[in-house]
Design goal:
Distance between the termini: 36 Å
Strand content: 5-15%
Number of domains: 2
Structural class: mainly alpha
Low-confidence stretches: none
Largest sheet: 3 strands, parallel
Order of helices and strands: HHHHHEHEHEHEEH
Number of helices: 9
Length: 218
């Protein structure tokens, strides 16, 4: 979601610095980049190590509230081509799931802004015990959709997200936003979703299956 469907990463980063500074610590842009795509509980422990004297749930709730407040003030910027691709997938009857490490209440608030029923399923950070980069979120999504994970395409903007999807066994389209995805294992990188269609995703999946079959045969 963050950075793939909507460009909320700057809002998260803007919420992190004042949180750390309120406890007398410092927070750099480089540190913020390390958290892109990381599960919120894991991120919260990093904030604790940086001096934030709050519990993990308190940190997660504080950051989520601040980001939601920021989005309410400034609006939600959808990434180029994201809405259009979702609509095309829906029109083609292809099941879709939103797999995000944001809290469910945040994910649902974003989904509600889309003017059609874009997702059949939402898997959020508080739905899994092991977040990205573990494969669990994507495996759960495939299981609840009733599809074979090997017949899915994950679209990701973060290294942790790509690693999660790769470990799960699906094909992965990387769409870099704030951080590079070079060397993360994505099957293909695209500058944006503006030129992506159900057909390009099917081609990616076909190539992934062919490659996986060749490796298995070897």
């Amino acid at each position: 979601m963050d950075g793939t469907l909507v460009d909320t990463e700057p809002h998260w980063m803007a919420a992190e610095t004042p949180l750390v500074e309120s406890f007398g610590g410092t927070w750099s842009h480089e540190q913020a980049l390390q958290l892109v795509g990381l599960g919120l509980d894991d991120a919260a422990r990093i904030f604790q190590a940086a001096g934030v004297r709050l519990s993990v749930p308190e940190i997660v709730d504080t950051l989520t509230d601040r980001v939601l407040e920021s989005l309410a003030r400034e609006g939600v910027p959808f990434r180029p081509g994201a809405r259009e691709l979702l609509f095309a997938l829906k029109e083609a009857g292809i099941p879709t799931a939103l797999v995000t490490m944001s809290m469910r209440r945040m994910a649902l608030s974003i989904v509600e802004l889309i003017d059609f029923d874009a997702f059949d399923l939402v898997i959020a950070g508080d739905d899994v015990s092991r977040p990205k980069p573990f494969p669990d979120p994507y495996l759960m999504a495939a299981d609840e959709l009733g599809v074979d994970i090997r017949q899915t395409v994950a679209i990701e903007d973060s290294p942790n997200g790509v690693r999660s999807a790769v470990a799960a066994g699906g094909a992965v389209l990387g769409v870099p936003n704030i951080v590079s995805l070079e060397g993360t294992g994505a099957n293909r990188l695209s500058p944006s979703l503006a030129d992506e269609t159900p057909a390009t995703l099917q081609d990616l999946l076909t190539r992934h299956a062919r490659h996986a079959g060749a490796e298995h045969g070897a």
